[in-house]
Design brief:
The structure holds two protein chains of two kinds. Chain A contains eleven helices and two strands. Chain A is mainly α. Chain A has a domain of 199 residues. Chain A has a two-stranded antiparallel sheet with strand order 1-2. In chain A, β1 and β2 form a beta hairpin. Chain B has one domain. A two-stranded antiparallel ribbon of chain B has the order 1-2. In chain B, α2 runs antiparallel to α10 and α4 runs antiparallel to α10. Chain B is globular and about 60 Å long. The relative contact order of chain B is 0.17. Classes of the chains: A mainly alpha, B mainly alpha. Chains A and B meet through α4, α9 and α11 of A and α5, α12 and α14 of B.
């Protein structure tokens, strides 16, 4: 029974992981930029949700669209002002740039929010449900449902909307898309904004499940890396596979080896995967 | 001109301990250490163009290898050299595993190495003291002698790094690495054994940071995993090389010097905003000075020369 419980825990966690990684994967896949800011953007969303709940008494689940909108604007501007000018540069340059931006954002968050851990404590608490011996906290269940819904929404947006098709066109062939009249710089900014919006939304959900501090961002960034490599870069289904796999692996490794080894295990897994199967489980080209 | 400047600087650095006080000596030791880190990164990141974020991993590995060896009774210098050798072997093995990755994948793999080593160090409590950190044997010499000892040790490491970089830049290895940086597939077609070249560069990029880490551990007497595997140790050398100009030999040294100057003049007055200011510097550097300060100097100089003698 304990194995079923651990599996359920892992899948619930994995659902949230999908939302955490999908924006990162989108930006990486379309812009070919590793967004080191991603972890901090998630935490920024978490803080927004935390303060909204504390001072305005807005439920974190209802705050998700607001966090997404807020972070979209921030991401859009960041791409437009800072990253677009160096899009043609080698990997090292864009990586170093987002690293620098992250140092700045991290330091500002430390100054503004302090390094203490905080958590949204829902009152009244939502409790938990018992499904034939498997216990699932309701707040986590709702978070997972929201997270998966967000990922689905992004998928639908990419497949169905004009903007989404333009994003995929840019991903497939930047020059051809440009010749077809797609404004590439604007699509880059929108893509980065969408990545940040997903981060903000995931952050709101995260604040209900875990305590947050500006330091947490790095761990989340690491998880986003692992999920992208695990599932394979460049597709929403890949992120789903990666997120759910990582959640399950972390749960079981916590059971077998102890929770203190979960980071080591996931990173060792990452290096092994990079060595033997860098394309990931679902890897192929083209973001869909 | 450059040669004269180099000899002059070397002489000044050699006699510095007899004329400077311990604060200046400490800053100078840090500067030499930064130079060695930047020169080390330049082998893989500058010459070969592989965005390595593994400097912190090598620094920490060197610090811990030397620290553990010393607590087991090895003499200090022997522990330093062994630590360098251990890191070189580690890098050669790791390089074989991850150097077939390119671009972002390589960057991430190299970034993760420090995290894994940190966790391993944290978990191996009986050997490394885990999160409690590791105390190193205290030397019995007085403070000034110690300061001089660590200064000269760092000087030797930095000078060796500079000499190796100059040597590599001139021989086959440097040529091959530049080919890899420009177009790796073309380099393969030309018959360059890219894997062997990249592993050589990666190993060189591990030796000097690990020696720095080993000396640093003895210098500060106490190390802990968050300190010596700090990701900033991977980023600072990159910033220094970007400051000085990527892929040049002396650029790394200039960059290290300028970086330390900024650190000493600006940051120590802004302790609350230390990381943020580094971030701003990185952003401005990347956006406005992609070829480093040398690029600015050269362009300016060339324009003036061009006007003077058309």
């Amino acid at each position: 029974m304990v194995y079923v419980q651990v599996l359920v825990n892992g899948l619930v966690l994995g659902g949230l992981y999908c939302a955490i990684a999908v924006g990162f994967s989108l930006v990486w896949g379309v812009l070919n930029v590793i967004n080191i800011l991603h972890g901090s953007l998630i935490i920024l969303g978490s803080y927004a949700a935390f303060f909204a709940y504390q001072y305005l008494n807005i439920d974190p689940f209802l705050f998700v669209p607001a966090a997404a909108a807020l972070l979209f604007c921030l991401g859009y501007l960041t791409q437009l002002v800072f990253i677009n000018p160096v899009m043609a540069s080698p990997v090292l340059i864009t990586l170093t740039l987002t690293f620098g931006l992250n140092l700045l954002l991290y330091n500002l968050m430390i100054l503004a929010f302090k390094a203490d851990f905080r958590k949204v404590i829902l009152s009244p608490p939502l409790g938990s449900i018992n499904l034939g011996g498997v216990i699932v906290p309701i707040d986590r269940l709702i978070s997972m449902a929201f997270a998966l819904a967000l990922v689905g929404l992004l998928y639908a947006l990419l497949r169905g909307s004009r903007i989404g098709r333009a994003i995929i066109a840019v991903r497939m062939d930047r020059e051809a898309a440009q010749l077809m009249g797609v404004k590439v710089a604007r699509i880059y900014a929108i893509t980065f904004g969408l990545g940040a919006a997903m981060a903000g939304a995931a952050g709101s959900l995260f604040s209900v499940m875990f305590p947050i501090s500006p330091e947490t961002g790095n761990a989340l960034l690491g998880k986003a890396f692992v999920i992208c490599v695990l599932g394979g870069l460049g597709s929403v289904p890949g992120v789903m596979v990666g997120g759910l796999t990582l959640g399950t692996i972390e749960s079981y490794s916590a059971l077998f080896f102890g929770p203190e080894y979960s980071v080591t295990i996931s990173f060792t897994l990452l290096i092994l995967l990079l060595m033997f199967r860098p394309t990931g489980i679902m890897g192929r080209r083209g973001f869909q | 001109m450059t040669r004269l400047l180099l000899v002059g600087t070397a002489l000044l650095l050699l006699v510095l301990p007899t004329i400077a006080d311990n604060y200046v000596l400490r800053v100078a030791t840090t500067m030499l250490m930064y130079s060695a880190l930047a020169l080390g990164w330049n082998f893989i990141g500058g010459f070969a163009g592989y965005p390595s974020f593994a400097t912190a991993a090598f620094f920490g590995l060197g610090a811990y290898a030397s620290g553990v060896l010393q607590t087991k009774g090895f003499p200090m210098m022997a522990a330093w050299i062994l630590a360098g050798a251990i890191a070189a072997l580690f890098a050669a093995a790791l390089g074989r595993a991850i150097l077939h990755l390119r671009g972002h994948y390589f960057a991430i793999a190299s970034l993760v190495v420090a995290e894994v080593l940190r966790e391993v160090t944290n978990s191996a409590t009986s050997l490394t003291g885990g999160g409690m950190g590791l105390n190193l044997p205290v030397l019995s010499a007085d403070v000034t002698t110690q300061a001089r000892l660590f200064y000269y040790a760092t000087f030797v490491v930095a000078a060796t790094a500079l000499a190796s970089a100059a040597l590599v830049a001139r021989n086959r290895l440097g040529f091959g690495l530049r080919c890899i940086q420009q177009n790796e597939d073309a380099a393969i077609v030309l018959g360059i054994n890219t894997r062997r070249y990249k592993v050589a560069a990666f190993t060189l990029s591990a030796v000097f940071p690990s020696l720095c880490g080993a000396i640093y551990a003895s210098w500060v007497n106490y190390i802990d995993p968050t300190d010596v595997y700090d990701v900033l140790l991977s980023v600072k050398p990159i910033v220094m090389v970007l400051l000085g100009g990527v892929g040049t030999v002396l650029g790394a040294v200039y960059g290290a010097f300028l970086f330390l100057l900024m650190e000493e003049l600006v940051w120590r007055n802004l302790l609350q905003f230390h990381a943020g200011l580094l971030g701003i510097i990185v952003v401005c550097l990347v956006l406005f000075l992609p070829h480093g300060l040398r690029g600015v100097g050269w362009a300016f100089w060339r324009r003036r020369m061009g006007e003077a003698a058309p």
